């Protein structure tokens, strides 16, 4: 009698209210009202069966056994068996519904978080630490689900308690009252003792977390340690923290062992009290031996619903906290395209203009942007791809005269592609990860790989295009990662392509080849490259030189190199030469101290992103 | 290259060793738990006595006596449980601490070549996930398992003592339960592991989406990322449904056993009473025992399941011990500081040589730049020169001794390698530097930092050298981390340094400045600099061009430019003036 669980995830997770945790939990409950109701009914059947079992047993002993072996006894045995079978079946099916309730709620919330992350852009990382977003899926979603899984057992427990109370009070008012009122007191005392235990457990978890961090830290830097020494320092450090964790564990053990003992002692003494009162009542002839057995059974059974009630309380508290955290993630509003576009798209071949800097991308031209401060040119280029609608109010960018922020976001992303200095590579099949827009043939992929001079990547990834690229392209060297990202950007083949420092991590040989091929493939297509590399500058149609946020001069790389100081904008050309020049005799333009500052300011524009580092892994 | 995973017999051998090591403690724990469990059997026994007494007529005094015994039993049981649980948990903590410390010790002594080639991902996973996965089993699993087994055995024994004839009825459901539990346990571990893998994949997807949020936005990858989440959830659901189906078989089978047992006891017990072989009290006691057995049996099945999962993690942890050493230190002592490579060949995969017989004679105190296209084998050559991997053919020697024959501590004093890798350890900046030289004082640390142009930013740190860095501390930029790595090398002060793109994360102008100040400090040391920026080559004494696993050109910059070969062409296009 398997009950089919409806497949998850649902195609549409819906739109949740983000007004408060209660509203979110209620919204989720309403969406699974049907299965929640079935689960609750099954929980009541299961617990109901368990609750009447001691009663039936008592009757069996009284009526069945005292009258000798025969039809009466067999009759009661059959009743016990029947109730038992119903209970077993209801519990098994109920478990399926509990799990379905749990998964439905947890997966719906996970999906909602996934959707938010997929459309939020950089706002999510601006507003929340990565760990918090990940734990929304890794733990908060599951915690929220637990409430719906335990609901049935909670309902069942409530009912069982009521049934047992009813039976007992009607059998022996005094004894019934002791059981019905006494047990909650016992449960209350135990719940009270759980608090210090939880505190010590939290302390241990924290120490344990630190130990894990320390272990991961040591192992992550193992190449360095094995290369230059210091292993001993680190194993000692780990050992110290490990012993610290052990000590917190011993403290937990002390509290836990008291709690374990009390969990035996209190219910045990309680049962002894019930037996004492019951046995005397039985001696006085007020109750039968079977009823005495039944009372013993109730007293033992009732601690179970009470335990579930405590668990439900804890689960609800946790879910409430988790829902609060989820709401923080779900209410992130993307920095661009939060509202639909208001203007219609300008025709293809429109000019893209950044008002503040005066950078103008005329259709079909391959242009380079150079600045003394690489940060500045990158900022301008990024702006032209629309990444922050609020900021754009101050520094408007127009495509064919229409402000980017007024356009539909999808249109902007379709027509203008910005490949930033620290592009992220995602795990997946290499061919699919390259072809982000889909529909390119293998020959086109190979062509893009050729342009980015990334053939060696096909050898580094087992099975080439069909092979798996690990997270962040970790198996590739820094240069390889950059070239894969470049091939990916080329394949999007947009009307306007903006590349920021696309070749900063590759060697000169390779850069020379890429520069030539890139200029060729984008010939006649609007392209902007932010770079200070002469190898690239030599191949573009026009070079824009920016100082203090404004274009101060432009020309071809060669013309700017040879423009006399005395000519129109000759001084600017001389300053351009100082930026792009590789003359070995030219002294460093700044003092050492400032030089290092420069290193901070620009390093994320050169090859310094984590994605582009550790080239050493590239071989094997 | 993958790290080894221990097979079944090896894991069992290791476990047996652990058990032997702690035999005394384990026996003591078992005894404590046994006595506690015996006391726990009092309840049903007393109930049985009372039922018999009431049926046969008794006095209030007798009832009080029996109840008093019960109260004493409960108190004794509680006290024993207090000590038994505490001792078990403390034992679990100690064993687990020993296990993880031993593991980390093994990891930090792994051969250089294994560390370089296996990558750190697998090791990090073993240090974090696998260690955490066995902690539950070691801390709680082992003690609870002991308790469950002892309780089950004692309950059965107590039933047999109460009335062996009636107690037989307890076993009526056992065959069904055993068959189904075995069926379940065989499938459960892979099932639950698939579940955790599915959730790990989902977390990975979300992590990637968040970390790459900017790229997701720029390249309109939103729909793809959503589809990935959907796919991960589908897999998680499939895994959940599989284990749910397993439980849908297990739960009713075990539950039914415990429904059947008391019914069988009553029917069979009733028959025994009618034939005079048992009392009503005995039947009551055994029926109650039948109910009581359900708890420990469920606990046993649960922990067997958990311990199976932990065993697979243990296999990965023990597996690290199986890595063979890649070298054996000899006792030859180098006669000088002259590093020479002869006919060096290297293949990561047999038959695919990356280096084809490289000859390189490093002049003591020279500065050699190695340039060449990506994938030419520059980094591999660097690792050979630093003695990280034993070459597959030829040799690299210092002062007449093979690098790989030197004890590791000596090797580090001769040759050291710095790569692009820029891991910053958790701790203070000073801690990060003192790895290379534990005895260095602050003056020396600052001097080393000055040599790599890092003094400026270090002085502006909130607490200077004492500033906490690494995960959770002050974040160093990758360029700063590279400077720290170089400063470490300055402190280590070997006579030959291999720098593999060691300044690539700095911007070109800062990199060049750094190299110049570093050169001043390293005067007299031999430096091999693998670089993609040609100014490094320009500033070096000699330039080696590596292409296709061979040195195609070697000589001073000016000579190579004059020779008009590959290097000259490259230089011209780069220089352009």
UniProtKB/TrEMBL annotation, chain A:
Keywords, ordered alphabetically: ATP-binding, Membrane, Nucleotide-binding, Transmembrane, Transmembrane helix
Pfam family, one: ABC_membrane
Lineage top rank: taxon: Bacteria
Protein location: Cell membrane
Keyword Nucleotide-binding: yes
Entry-linked PROSITE patterns: ABC_TM1F (PS50929), ABC_TRANSPORTER_1 (PS00211), ABC_TRANSPORTER_2 (PS50893)
A single MF term (Gene Ontology): ATP binding
Occurrences of domain ABC transporter (ranges): 327-573
TM annotation in the entry: 33-57, 69-94, 147-169, 175-194, 264-283
Topology of the protein relative to the lipid bilayer: Multi-pass membrane protein
Disordered, as annotated region: 582-620
Start and end residues of each ABC transmembrane type-1 domain: 38-318
Protein name per its UniProtKB record: ABC transporter ATP-binding protein
Protein species of origin: Oerskovia merdavium
From TrEMBL, chain B:
SMART domains according to UniProt: AAA
Membrane topology of the entry: Multi-pass membrane protein
Residue ranges of domain ABC transmembrane type-1 in the record: 27-308
Keywords for the protein's UniProt record, in alphabetical order: ATP-binding, Membrane, Nucleotide-binding, Transmembrane, Transmembrane helix
Membrane in keyword set: yes
Main localisation: membrane
Name of the featured protein: ABC transporter ATP-binding protein
CDD domains cross-referenced by the UniProt entry: ABC_6TM_exporters (cd07346)
Residue span, ABC transporter domain: 339-573
Gene Ontology MF terms in the entry: ATP binding
Bilayer-crossing regions: 26-47, 59-81, 142-161, 167-185, 249-271
Protein localization: Cell membrane
A Pfam family assignment: ABC_membrane
UniProt keyword Transmembrane, yes or no: yes
InterPro entries: AAA+_ATPase, ABC1_TM_dom, ABC1_TM_sf, ABC_transporter-like_ATP-bd, P-loop_NTPase, Type_1_exporter
